[in-house]
Write a structure and sequence with these properties.
heterodimer; A: mainly alpha; ABC transporter involved in vitamin B12 uptake, BtuC; two-stranded antiparallel sheet; 16 helices; 2% strand; disordered C terminus; B: alpha/beta; 6-stranded mixed beta sheet; 4-stranded antiparallel beta sheet
Chain lengths: 358, 266
């Protein structure tokens, strides 16, 4: 077991708390940098998707996991980012400029959606964001002059200042850079007063207010940052998919995103990426398992939805802290071996329990 | 700084529908004193607290704090005016550590904007260091070192009560509102709480306004006591004066006639 002897306050402020962190995250970074040379094209594409969804997940995690506001319409922000990027890239804007615009536009839409959050909570906010998701999907379908409507629109290759990310490898590196940047930004936010204000609102609005936190301002801010990250993810998504149509940003996609953060582990930055890994790898696993199952079950339509549903129920019941919670327990088992007890995490309480929906 | 009372309540009245929770209550809290509100359940003590922290809007009357009317100040501005509070049923940030709770208490002293927070500039870092130093002073003052990195959700009730007090102190208030600081505490913890309240008054020079039921604690720390019953003021004075006031005894124990009628009924 590691005991860190702290001598300065900076040790608590630093992102890497001790040498172990530096070592393991450094190793992870090296592996991610070397990935294009090591894995096949197919797995590189999956890895790219994980990074893209990781960025979106970070945004939703900030909103749902750290501010306690649930959005069941998050695919709409993804869509706003994706379409903005597609249109601007089509007009020849360089990527840094277009992705910043996509984020800004998604953020301003987020500010509007944040308005009901100032008045309603829990399940009611869920319904409001759900309705918003439907409206945006409808706008994508009807605003044909910009979005191409249901016929869809083709997204040009990512390019900036004469350089084009026309190979899978180069696009992967763009996604990696953005994912790292987004993670650092979120981590910075969480260790600063703004992030603490979000956590305060999540846990007790009344005392957050009495500590001087302007509820309306911070809730809107959380929605804006969350939507901006979804917008950035959407911009990358557009370039990866290369073809956009409104039904890609429907309710199912929104639920997938919510599923991702819940299963990853609400209230942890790791959870966003663990959830993304789950979301991307699950369809592959189901496809693999399909052949092993008897035909009436294996070939049934909607198998994926059933599996997702079961996994979600399983997590909510048995591991409310998600994959990250599971990882914490596994790590505790190894560091404490052979002294780990079953009851050690008995007192953990997920704030997702029903009282959040009051 | 003016020499008048720190906080003045003038003819405060609150009606919830037909119920008059607080009826024409007036009192002054002097700078540097411990002022206690007592009274049976439903007397309107917590309502008075919620009026001062602007959770409720008074139907009539006004509250003046350091010469300025509070009734137009939005709830989130109260803390930066120097008023901090605790809650009767502990309202801590459950899924955060004790340290994080106290850091949130420093919110009103934040020196950075969102953009510099996102980038964690050197200014934010310096401010964080300073925030941490201030919070450590509070941790030391209330002996919370052992619990610094514990999640609040896993703490026993008595410690949570102290954490809430610590969080209020972290805001560096001028006026501290304590809503039943001893409720749910055992004898030993209550006596610790009494010491802390005295220290807060004497060492930190903070004015304390509290609601309390434990009369031993009340008479030990209070300079003045205001007794309320059914939304109205019964008596105001030193703890001893208020305790011997006939109206107060009546409100708590009933009148002699009540006892007589009970006897005859039995």
């Amino acid at each position: 077991m590691r005991f860190v002897f702290k001598t300065t306050y900076d040790q608590d402020i630093r992102l890497a708390q001790h040498g172990g962190h530096l070592f393991w995250y450094g190793l992870l970074l090296l592996a991610l940098l070397a990935a294009p040379a090591l894995v096949s094209e197919y797995w590189l594409a999956q890895l790219t998707f994980i990074l893209i969804y990781g960025v979106v997940g970070l945004g939703l995690m900030l909103l749902a996991g750290f501010t306690g506001l649930f959005s069941i319409g998050h695919a709409a922000f993804l869509g706003v980012g994706a379409y903005t990027e597609a249109v601007l890239a089509g007009m020849g804007w360089p990527f840094p400029l277009s992705v910043a615009t996509a984020a800004a536009l998604a953020a301003s839409v987020g500010a509007i959606v944040g308005l009901p959050a100032l008045r309603v909570k829990g399940i009611y906010l869920g319904i409001a964001t759900l309705a918003f998701g439907f409206i945006v999907e409808e706008v994508f379908a009807r605003w044909e002059s910009v979005t191409g409507g249901n016929a869809g629109m083709v997204v040009p290759t990512l390019s900036m200042f004469g350089w084009r990310a026309d190979t899978d490898q180069s696009f992967y590196y763009v996604c990696l850079a953005i994912a790292i940047g987004a993670t650092l930004v979120v981590l910075n936010l969480l260790r600063s007063p703004t992030g603490r204000a979000f956590v305060a609102i999540r846990d007790s609005e009344i005392s957050a207010q009495s500590m001087g936190i302007h509820l309306a301002r911070y809730k809107t801010l959380s929605f804006m940052i969350s939507a901006a990250l979804a917008g950035v993810g959407g911009a990358l998504y557009a370039h990866k998919i290369r073809f956009l149509s409104p039904e890609q940003f429907n309710i199912i996609h929104s639920i997938d995103l919510l599923l991702m953060v819940v299963i990853g582990g609400l209230g942890s930055v790791h959870g966003a990426f663990l959830g993304a890994i789950f979301l991307i790898s699950m369809p592959q696993l189901i496809a693999l398992g399909k052949d092993a199952l008897p035909a009436p079950i294996g070939q049934a339509p909607g198998l994926q939805a059933v599996v997702y549903g079961l996994v979600l129920i399983g997590f909510v019941l048995f591991e409310p802290l998600g994959l990250y919670g599971r990882w914490l327990k596994l790590r505790a088992w190894f560091t404490l071996f052979p002294f780990y007890r079953r009851g050690m995490f008995k007192r953990q309480k997920a704030f997702t329990k029903s009282d959040r929906l009051r | 700084m003016n020499d008048g009372p720190m906080l003045q309540a003038k003819d405060l009245t609150v009606r919830f529908g037909g119920v008059v929770a607080v009826n024409r209550v007036s009192f002054d809290v002097r700078r540097g004193e411990v002022f206690t509100l007592i009274g049976p359940n439903g007397a309107g003590k917590t309502t008075v607290f919620n009026l001062i922290s602007r959770i409720y809007q008074p139907t009539e009357g006004e509250i003046v704090y350091e010469g300025r009317p509070l009734t137009r100040v939005p709830p989130h501005r109260i803390a930066s005016l120097g008023i901090a509070r605790t809650f009767q049923n502990i309202e801590l940030f459950e899924h955060a550590t004790v340290l994080q709770n106290l850091l949130i208490g420093r919110h009103i002293h934040r020196a950075s904007g969102v953009w510099s927070d996102l980038l964690f500039t050197s200014r934010v870092r310096a401010a964080e260091r300073d925030t941490r130093r201030r919070v450590e002073e509070v941790i030391e003052f209330l002996d919370l070192q052992h619990h610094r990195d514990t999640m609040v959700a896993g703490l026993p009730y008595g410690v949570r009560k102290v954490v809430e007090l610590a969080r209020a102190l972290a805001t560096q208030p001028k006026l501290l509102l304590l809503d039943e600081p001893s409720s749910g505490l055992n004898v030993e913890e209550t006596s610790d709480m009494a010491f802390w309240i005295q220290d807060i008054q004497n060492e930190l020079g903070i004015t304390v306004l509290m609601v309390e039921h434990d009369m031993t604690l009340v008479s030990r720390v209070s300079d003045r006591v205001l007794a309320m019953n059914q939304g109205e003021v019964l008596a105001l004075g030193t703890p001893a004066q208020v305790q011997s006031h006939p109206g107060v005894i009546e409100a708590y124990l009933g009148t002699a006639e009540d006892t007589a009628s009970l006897r005859s009924a039995a």
